[in-house]
Amino acid sequence: MTDLSSPAPRALPDDIATALSRVASRLGSIGRDVLWYRDIPSTNDVAGRLADGGANEGALVLADMQTAGRGRLGRIWVSPPGAGIYASIVLRPGPSVVKLLTLAAGVAVAEGIATASGLEVELKWPNDVHCGGRKLAGILAERGSTHVVLGFGINVLRAVYPADVRVRATSIELELGRPVDRALVLSECLASLASRYRELGDGRADAVMSAWRRRAASMLGRRVEWDGPGVVQRGVAERVDDDGALIVRTESGPMRVISGEVRWVL
Q: Which terminus, N or C, of the chain has the lesser number of Cβ atoms within 10 Å?
């Protein structure tokens, strides 16, 4: 499996190869094909081209650094070398799975971080992983005609970030005050993702949503705002329904938010 429009992939680092081999029985199809790059613009871009070219489900793209990493709504995901996990996976889910895939990935990343490091984190709708009020990880799902590229970035080690990022971001190492095994965090996140993905495919979305709600409990009851058609909408976040939409109580009644940016008002 190659991608001729990207720099040549390198040999998988020993620590990552060892960590993935230890959880191989839990990964299913994820990671059977792995491409690792020292630096590329975006793992999602490479995985998207692979998917368009017929890559198998579970193809995994990893990078030590991204020069043009991105999050939702076109935002930049700062990806300093050696400090984080930058990963994208080619998935080919059925329609019933797609709508909850991002939420399932949030659960998986939170679980993987907790298993690998002991750090408990919170989820914020729709796709952010937070700790102590600052962002620790993010998820970006991009749909193609026959696939979804699921990308995630996790701040693992201490790093130098731009000032505007530094005030709202944190890392696992910073929160714990001790070194963290980046390869172990990656392997446990992938193993948890494989498990949650299987649950969605087996019709057990209730298990995924229950796990998501437990980790997102702190966001409920908080005031939020978002951009509606020509006006800023405001209300109080009440719950997330079984289809993954955020239900907000407003002065005019409950509203169902299914996309866009929700800003959490302190």
A: C
